Amino acid sequence: MNRIVLRFYTPGASPRTDDWARGTGYHTPMTASSTFNPPTRVLMGPGPSGAHPRVLRAMTAPILGHLDPEFLKIMDNCNNMLRTVMKTENRITIATPGTGTSGMEAAVMNLVEPGDKVVVGICGYFGERIAQMAERSGGVVTRVQAPWGSPTDFAGVEAAVKAAGNVKLVGIVHAETSTGVQTPVEPFAKLAHDAGALLLVDCVTSLGGVPVTADAWGADAVYSGTQKCLSAPPGMAPLTLSPRAWDAVKAREVPCNTWYLDLSLLEAYWDERRAYHHTAPISMVYALHEALALVLDEGHQNRWARHETNGRALQLGFEAMGLALHADEGYRLPVLTTIRIPEGVNDLEVRGALLKRNSIEIGGGLGDLRAKVWRIGLMGESSNPGNVLLAISAMGKILREQGFKADIRAGLSAATARLEQA
Ligand SMILES: Cc1ncc(COP(=O)(O)O)c(C=O)c1O
């Protein structure tokens, strides 16, 4: 049988990209079969979630040119479906190339000009990322910190906006993936608008899993990612800007600090001018198209209810098993649950055993919560009753081996009771 030789590199050395680039590698032949065999995992971490088979099938469709009229139709359809899924009529509703961070960067970099005042409500890892981007854009940023496990501090943001005066942008994270907390958006929209500011909302982990209603909220910039509750692979970032936000982009005095994500340039590709800006990631647009069609087929209410039922069943199950949830009650996301790691239990050993024995991926803690919590996602395709019961029984067993007396039977029966209410 012919062996396909892909690459040679120095024996004993790792195949580092820089070796390859310099062309210094030689010797050990690698074959296609030895290098590409990703296992099938149960993805229950903070993302990516499992992709729907229809989405994966769509990605194998023939590649079209990015200016082919048939592709442009697909792209337009995609934007129309995005408007429905994000619950907005904003003309500027697109998906930027790149993961969720590209949506964040497009929104922040385009809206913040040097000297602009920005207030960011931070209650976890991703709020801090917004603040850092706003600073890179030349913004004068006030950070309002909340404990990691609580929602964004409304009173603190209100006081900061008042103290700063003439604030251009208020930024918050709807679903903080690092803590499993959901922050109610409407009060922040009113606060921002009363102060003459725009409201930016990170919905990377919420879109497609919990209600995101951009227009009803009064949000001015909302972005998300494809790999969480939309159940497509990582690679695109849905983004919508209100007419007020778009006016602010158009009124900029200096071009923004990014060319690739400059929305004034991108607009000419996405609108009827179809001017070349970059080569659209064709297969990812197919994937997003199919993922959005799946949301519409299922229906918003059904989809939100499914995520709610499975998330709450998981939470009740873990509590009944004897574990403590980290996020404040009343603000817990159904799509991402943070569980406190019990005393004496080894974080890495538990996650390692889950992966090795059960092929289940869950997440560890980020930033301040490192080695303190586990993050269990039930997003998109991964949000199903089977995964709820699997996670409880598999983790329960491993926890018992670690010396923690997990009551697996109580966990399973509490989760089942909640699942049966649906
Ligand atoms: C709330 C939130 N914002 C932003 C991001 C960044 O998205 P990505 O990793 O897709 O670039 C993430 C990723 O987990 C997230 O959870």
Fill in the keyword field for this structure:
422 residues, alpha/beta, seven-stranded mixed β-sheet, three-stranded antiparallel β-sheet, globular, disordered N terminus
Description:
The structure is a single chain. The chain has 422 residues and is of the alpha/beta class. The chain contains 16 helices and 14 strands. It has helices at residues 17-22, 32-35, 53-58, 69-86, 100-111, 125-136, 154-164, 186-194, 214-217, 243-250, 263-270, 282-298, 300-320, 347-358, 385-401, 408-421, and strands at residues 42-43, 92-97, 117-122, 140-145, 167-173, 175-176, 181-182, 198-202, 221-223, 236-241, 336-340, 360-361, 363-364, 373-377. The strands form four sheets. The protein has a seven-stranded mixed beta sheet with strand order 2-10-9-8-5-3-4, with helices on both faces. Strands 11-14-13 form a three-stranded antiparallel beta sheet, covered by helices on one side. Strands 1-12 form a two-stranded parallel ribbon. Helix 7 (154-164) packs parallel to helix 8 (186-194) and helix 15 (385-401) runs antiparallel to helix 16 (408-421). It is globular. The termini are far apart. The structure holds pyridoxal-5'-phosphate (PLP).
